[in-house]
Specification:
Elements: E1 6-14, E2 20-24, E3 27-31, E4 39-47, E5 51-61, H1 87-104, H2 110-116, E6 117-121, E7 132-139, E8 145-150, E9 157-159, H3 169-183, E10 198-205, E11 212-218, H4 226-234, E12 239-246, E13 260-264, E14 268-272, E15 275-279, H5 289-303, E16 310-314, H6 320-326, E17 331-336, H7 339-351, E18 357-361, H8 364-379, E19 387-390, H9 399-407, E20 412-417, H10 420-432, E21 435-443, E22 453-460
Parallel strand pairs: 3-5, 6-21, 11-12, 16-17, 16-19, 17-18, 19-20
Antiparallel strand pairs: 1-2, 1-4, 2-3, 4-5, 7-8, 7-10, 8-9, 10-11, 12-13, 14-15, 20-22, 21-22
Helix pairs in contact: 1-10, 3-4, 5-6, 8-9
Length: 461
């Protein structure tokens, strides 16, 4: 096979990044936007020895799983990878991905896996689910400000104020901001020259409270004529917070280090279940509130608390899972690396009058082992936890942490994961050290993307 060659191929599988996979005489082709069951014409763009990457040119015969995308930019935009796949098939793909990793990386047999896997939790309405959006700003060929999303793997902006994953009010807010910029000739930031003011706009929307926050990220210290902008944005029902964050660095990091209030409060309030959270422009907060509630309910169900337990919530962020668990446990300890998140966790505990949650700043792999050592020195006995919950970032848990978790002999471990590959690796360790897999369940937090969350229950043998 050679570069630029045009081939006709049947798509037989889905890769981990949602791409279609087809074979020609044993040579594997990865084709973005091709869907399992399609027969497509594709052009080979990059040819390796045994496999290559091809561009979808024409769909000769569409797959039964192919659907019309809601968004006209679904293919170009880097946000959605599988919008043209039916939602049912997306869920099947995600379940399959979890299973595959448990088998290949975790070393679990297919009998064990089929016994422990529960059906993936999907969404009833898999669009307009995001409570947060960060729109980059740029300039079109005519010199007008535009906003939208980055095309896959680039920083080219596709102008689109109406993303079908976000809430409908985003469009209104973005159009007001563009109008304001045009009126006062305020320029978008240009990464190449370092000039221009408006970099990004962050919008957050409380699904329960209907409160709206707008934060402009700017390459400067102030926004000229901001009183006019405030007046425009305040017309929008639910507006509670207008802020800006100054970020003058040449970096891919979106937010600056702090923010200033232009109008209203510096935060909005929202609920997950019965727990109320204050969310500032810089706080981490799960983006899909409908599925997050299901995810936390599931973690709570797996934890199976009766009220007498000591529970650790490692990688606790702003204490979301900790506060959920605290409603049913005797004592909860949360650990998180970001000091600001722990500040938020403490204030969220206060707002909800939860008194049995304590939070520590630090790396989970350092805080827990040193707690364990100190405890023995002070009390002469080993520290014990009844339940340990972990929700690590993509890289999973360090082995030193897994070891201490095992040493603390919890009856149950609940592992919440956003990457089933590192999850499978860590489950292998835990199952080689006295635990057994009880339940595994996917939760679809990000419909139309290839990501999937997994919740796992392990119990002591
Ligand atoms: N459980 C929370 C957050 C999960 S995201 C929720 O559901 O909202 C993972 C969190 O782990 C992030 O807040 C991140 O800041 C934190 N983190 C990353 N590395 C860490 C480490 N080594 N030790 C503790 N926390 C860490």
């Amino acid at each position: 096979m050679q570069k630029n060659e045009i081939v006709t191929v049947t798509i037989e599988d889905i890769g981990v990044n949602g791409e279609g996979i087809g074979k020609i005489n044993g040579y594997t082709l990865f084709i973005k936007d091709a869907i399992i069951g399609d027969i497509v014409e594709a052009k080979l763009m990059k040819a390796k020895k045994n496999y290559g990457y091809a561009r979808l040119m024409k769909i000769i015969s569409p797959s039964a799983f192919r659907v019309d995308p809601k968004c006209a930019y679904a293919r170009k935009c880097g946000g959605c990878q599988i919008q043209e796949m039916s939602y049912e098939k997306q869920l099947e793909f995600k379940n399959h991905k979890i299973k595959g990793n448990l088998e290949r990386i975790g070393g679990f047999s297919s009998e064990v896996i089929s016994k422990v896997m529960e059906p993936i939790v999907g969404m009833e309405n898999p669009f307009y689910y995001r409570n947060k959006a960060q729109f980059p700003f740029g300039t079109d060929k005519e010199g007008n400000p535009v906003t939208g999303f980055y095309a896959g793997r680039t920083h080219d902006i596709i102008a689109n104020t109406n993303c079908s994953l976000g809430v409908s009010v985003n469009k209104q807010i973005l159009e007001q901001i563009l109008e304001f910029m045009k009126k006062f000739r305020i320029k978008s930031y240009d990464e190449k020259t370092g000039k221009g003011l408006i970099r990004h706009v962050l919008i957050r929307y409380g699904f329960t409270t209907k409160e709206i926050m707008v934060c402009l990220i700017i390459n400067g210290k102030k926004i000229p004529h901001s009183d006019v902008l405030i007046e425009m944005l305040c017309q929008i029902e639910g507006m509670r917070s207008i802020t800006f964050s100054s970020n003058m660095k040449n970096t891919n990091v979106i937010m600056g280090e702090s923010y200033e209030v232009l109008w209203g409060q510096g935060y909005i309030t929202d609920y997950i279940g019965k727990i109320r959270y204050q969310i500032s422009p810089l706080s981490f907060y799960q983006v899909n509130p409908v599925q997050t509630e299901k995810l936390y309910e599931l973690a709570l169900e797996y934890a199976n608390l009766k009220g007498h337990e000591t529970v650790w919530d490692l990688y606790c962020g702003i204490g979301t899972i900790s506060l959920f668990l605290a409603q049913k446990a005797r004592q909860v300890y949360g650990v998180e690396i970001i000091p600001q998140a722990i500040e938020d966790a403490k204030s969220n505990a206060n707002i909800n009058e939860i008194k049995n949650a304590e939070f520590y700043v630090g790396k989970a792999e350092e805080v827990l082992p040193s707690y364990y050592e100190e405890y023995e020195k002070i009390h002469g006995t080993k520290a014990h936890a009844d339940v340990i919950v972990v929700d690590p970032p993509r890289k999973g848990c360090e082995e030193t942490l897994l070891k201490t978790m095992v040493d603390m002999h919890p009856e149950r471990i609940v592992y919440v994961s956003c990457d089933s590959a590192t999850l499978a690796r860590d489950l292998r360790y835990l199952c080689e050290h006295g635990y057994t897999l009880d339940k595994v369940r996917g939760v679809d937090q990000f419909p139309m993307s290839v990501h999937v969350e997994t919740v796992v229950l392990l119990s002591q043998i």
